[in-house]
Amino acid sequence: MASPQQQQSLKDSVTDTNETLVPPKVDSGLKLTARNVNFYYGAFQALHGISLDIPTNKVTAFIGPSGCGKSTFLRTMNRMNETVRNTRVEGEVKLDSEDLFSMDVTDVRRRIGMVFQKSNPFPKTIFDNVAYGLRVNGIKKSSILSEAVERSLTHAALWNEVKDKLTKPASALSGGQQQRLCIARALAVEPEVLLLDEPCSALDPIATLKIEELLFQIKDITTIVIVTHNMQQAARLADFTGFFLMGKLIEIDVTKKIFQNPGMKETEDYVTGRFG
Amino acid sequence: MMMEISATRRFVNGFMLTLSGLCTVLVVSVLFFILGYLLIHGAASLNWDFFTKLPKPSGETGGGMANAIVGSGKVLFLASLIGVPIGFLTGVFLAEYSGKTFAFLIRYVVDLLNGVPSIVIGIVAYALVVKPMRHYSALAGGVALGIMMIPIAVRTTEEFLRAVPNSLREGAMALGATKATTIFTVVIPAAISGLASGMMLNLARVAGETAPLIFTALGNQFWSAGWMAPIATLPVMIYNYAISPEEDLHQQAWAAGFVLLSLVLIINVTARLIISRGPAAQRR
Amino acid sequence: MATTTPSYIAETLKRRTSRGFLARLRGGDEISYLITLICTVSILLIVGLIVFELWSNSHQTFKTFGFSFLKSSAWDPNADKYGALPFIYGTCVTAFLGMIIAVPLGVAAAIFLAEMAPPKLSNFLTFLIELLAAVPSVIYGLIGIFILVPFLKTYVVPPLQHAFGFLPIFAGSFYGLSLFSAGIVLSVMVAPFIISVSREVLMAVPVEQREAALALGATKWETTWDIVLPNASTGIFGSIFLALARALGETMAVTMVVGNAPKISASLLSPGYSIAAVIANEFAEASGDLYISSLIFMALVLFGLTIVINAVARIFIMTTQQRGA
Question: How near does any CA of chain C get to the CA of A87, in Å?
């Protein structure tokens, strides 16, 4: 086991060197950067010194065993943790070089969308669900709303299934459809980043496949960060993968390298199934 | 050697089961007795006049309670204007904004307010409205009943808002909605059936209240104009007629009792059925 | 969105990014918090107002009579002499009688509904009992005057006097309107409260406790009596206190059957009065400041009594809920 200093320098080199990362495209860059993020639930420290970059228009996956902090960190990125009492965050997160924590929080959440583990459609019609984010942000014109709703539902691979029943309640949809509806709802406000917290964990394999396919399609219009406990899913979907363990980011790199040739022993143990 | 349960123990078990069952039946049967008597005595004297005519002067027979029915409606309307907003918004505060200790304190105080006898509330309304105005009024009655509506409005609202799952709130806030927008466009609509039923139950409860109206709204043999005059209400009429010496008025009291009870029970049954089928019950 | 052409939506939403003070105000969080907080605080003010109005309007009686008002039975409005004792007596006696009947009846019924009856039957019967709780007081009074009192006169009191007439509480002639009748009506009115709260408290006792007893071979009744009831006893006491507060403050049904006579007598069969009843009866016609302030002073006493009993009851019930959780 490498000493803490060696581990730290290894980590730094993994995230900073150009040789291991695919050289960024001209119009791509770093959408989100995090430096030394600590997070506390009361006295308990859940995240220790997380530093990473999320490249634009790519899929980044967070993997790791239960309770490792990957979801906690995800929720830090759109400041959803602030809705829980007695929490504290330290460190710096930048969205396109803007300081995340000085921005207006509702703006952060509009620009960084989230899809939750269990689908949570509102008890409204399908149309009203997708249009909700737009209406709440002041867009009321019905022609624009209709167009946006259709576009989002198409991106979410749901349009053909619901186009004749937009006025039906969202609760009438199946589990997989409801989750795609939640994706459409998040996409409607045209977020720059879409965070997904184990979106397929409650779904069957067919529904999961549909969602994975659509995620692959939409990375052109947004940046995707997905938390998953399913390593095969990360291997299929993600351009970059970060491995979390006990509140620390052990390693983040090109997915292929993480799974085939990980730099850290803990990563190797996890991806070869020795624990977790 | 196996010991069989003694005959005494078995007897006691069976006896107690029967006894407690009888007690239950006894209590439940009271409901049917009340309904039965009101049906027999009240429904018989119910006629079209009851709903359309004004009371006749003392000594004459006939007449109806049209003014009392409308009067009850007016006073209840006023009561809702006072009780529902205060109670509802307080419930919103307790469910969505308040810290634990403050919420506990408020809930406790609200429960105490609920336990205040209605006649005492009547006196307070008298002191607040009738005394300065120097006359009885529908307004005073509305204030009294409005205060009585507050505790139940608070508890119902808080209960049904808390029953809305947090995932809905998170979903809305993750889209960039402010907390206030989330509450009013997602949480409250999600709880709406329970909230509405709760308000109906609340209304049904104060609709039957007599004591606080006796010296606030007082009563009126005629139509009451506006809000500042004494006004007849159904429960007060029932009381006045029941204790009067005239047999004809007794009949009208029965009829009015039947109407009042039917209304109260119908609202209660409907509201409770809605609640028992609603999302909050599913979650239990 | 880095790679596609900016759409109308992206433009509008980006424009809203600049959050000035006015924009935050429109977001509504501060206003919403403020308004709901104001409503909450207003309830505290209302309670304070109640106490203030009761106190200030009864001040005159307190100044004139002091605490002896509560011990005196001289109630003579014409002579402007007032004493609260008959009403306190009547309130306590009727409530006590009501509770003596309602408590065993109610607890027994609650036990049946919580422990013995199958769930569907239990829910249905509880539903009916909750409807009974919703019946207005004046309806109970109506039934009381025209049905209950004649019934008592014909079928209940004669045998009662025959058997127990030697007791002072059953002495004297019975004309119908009496403390006894009021007590009976009250018992029916408060039983549903005892039943519904006790039932919930009993059902909250953890299943493991019952199973432990049954597994040792106890009968259903023995389990209930020895294990469940003691567990739930605090909550049941709470429900009893709640019912007591209700009985003390009950107005219409009592005033219609109690006889409205401001005297103290040992016999339950004689007419009496209660605080709530005298206020209901005499307040509207009361003239003279001392008269009114005496009635309000009694209202203050009633208020204080019910608040204290309710406060204690709530604590009992909350303790049970904590334990059961």
Answer: 20
